[in-house]
Each structure stands twice: as structure tokens, then as C-alpha cells.
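A note on notation is needed here, since sequence and fold are reported together in a single record. The reader may check this reading against the record printed directly beneath this paragraph.
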Amino acid sequence: MLFGFLTSFIEQYSFLNVFKYLTFRTGLSVITSLIIVFIIGGPLIKVFSENMISGPIRQDGPIDHIIKKSGTPTMGGVIIIIGMLSSTLLWADLKNIYVWTLIFVSLSLSLLGFADDLLKIKFKNSRGLSSKLKFLGQLIIGIITLYMLINFSDHEYLNNLYFPFFKNLIWQMGLFFIPFALFVIIGSSNAVNLTDGLDGLATVPVMLVALSFTLICYIVGNTIFSEYLQLQYIPDVGELSIFCGSIVGSCLGFLWYNAPPAKIFMGDTGSLSLGGSLAVVAIIVKHEIVLAIIGGLFVLETVSVIIQVISFKLTGKRIFKMAPIHHHFEQKGWAESTIVIRFWIIAIILALVGLATLKLR
């Protein structure tokens, strides 16, 4: 929006050429979303608190949560989404189909999460939307997203799966791409949702994944850097750096309010949207496996739930004291801040490993 307006005056004012630089606009995207979240965060938290917009705490969870976290506002994802979309609309090239695809998926999943949070608040329980209905909503959004990518973009490598560490190992998935991509979108969306169980636990890892993909989008969309690193060059995907930058800025601003002890929770409104959006970014730039590495903490949380469910159904016994795994460590007596910071450290290490795959080929 603002990008298009400013660049229309380049012939009269040559200094406006700076807005053509992707790095400059990405920086502006981070700063803009950060400022927006800072400005609206406090007032919205006050409104949510006054109107009792607080989600129920799991009754089967740690007793400490029931005592300390009851009454804390939820739906903080609204703050993040406003920062993300505002910044993206201001600084991204709105002629880019990938930008609109990500705006669609982030907004749609946010509305799905909003409905889930709203039901939890209304009926004062932690169930919200049924798992089947939530899955159906994610499936429909995923199908529409893939339809947009397949039919309205010129992405000739969309059906390919590239393996890190191997420069020539490529799987042309054909029609199998559709179920694979749906699995990535739905899986990532739910994985971030499962991780969002402690103050600030999901916010920093999401920010690290977004920061990593800010760099990946820029490299893959640049002919010189992609050739140097022996990555597949994909036209027009560099613009997604601005979207990823908006996530970084929004999450950084949200962390101010979400850091322990949290003044507001992200809720499904934020977690479903952030997870799904980053998955679509990974699909577009063809780094789905790298997403699993960088977002390995989300994978770990999800796998812990799967193992717990399978073990209980088959043997009647639980592997962990409680799932997801962050609650297991709580039940073992770890302080919440200890778990959060240690998981942040793991997320940083995984981000470095994931970025290392760009060079080690």
C-alpha cells in the first residue's frame, strides 16, 4: 500500500529508490509491526481484562496454573495479527500473489482460532471447537491456499521436495504434493498451538523460525545468493521476507506482554495462524524439511502428545507425567521460567542447525 504509493514518485524524488530495496522494507516491516503491537497491546489487554476475556485453565493441568493463571486475558493473537497484517500491507508489494496467499492463510486460521477461543470463554471450558471441526476448518483453509498457489502463481517448482545437505536430491512429488502440503500446514498449525502452554514458550521459537525464514526467503529469491549457496532460485519469493519480518516484529512486541508472568495469552487466535503461515512460507520457498529442523521444538511437543496417546491406548500407561512435554517437566518440579528459557535455548540451537543446512550441501 505505502510501498506502491511511495515508489510511484521515484521519478520525481530519486531518494525514494531506497524503498525498492527488499532489505530496507523488511527492516521497516519489523519496526512497524513492533511499534503497532506496542501501541495497541496495552489498551487491548485492558479492554480484554475489563470484559473478562480470559480462557479457562486446564483442570487436569498443574495446580500452580489454576492458582496463578486464572483470569489472565487470552486472544492475544489478535494483537499479533493486527501488527503482522498492517505491516505487510504497508511495505509489501501487493501485486505479489504469494503475499496475498499468506494474508489469506494467516487471517483465515486466525478467525478459526478466534472461534475456538470464543467458545472456550463462552462455555468456560478448555474444549472449544471439537477436534473434528477444527481439523475440517484447517483442511478447507489449506485446500484453498494450495488452490491459490497452484492456479495463480508461476511457481514451476511447487511440486518438488528438496532435501537439505544434498544439493541434487529432489523428489518430484506430483499429485502427492497436495496431501503432503496439507499435512505440513495442518501439522505446523497444531504444533505451535500445542506448544503455547507456558508464558512466552511459543512466542520466542515462532520468532526464531520467522527470523530464519526471513533470511531464507531473501536468499531463495535472489539469483546471486541462491546460486552461490546452490539453492533453487524461485522468482518473486523474496517479497515474503517482509511478511516474515512482520511476524518477527509482532512476536517481539507481544513478548513484552507475554513474558513470564504473562499479562495475556496468545490463544488459538495467534498460535493456529502463526504455525500455518510459517508452513505456507516454507512450502513456497521449498524448505519444508528445514522448517521441521528449525521448528524442531514444535515437532518435539507434538510427538510427545502422539506418543502419550498411543502408549495410553495400547498399554493403559503414560510415558510422560503429562503431555505436551513441557508439562511433564513441570510435574517433575521444574520452575516454569526454567522450562521456558531452556526450551528457548533448544529453539536457538535448532535454528542455527537449520540455517547451517543452507551452506552444508
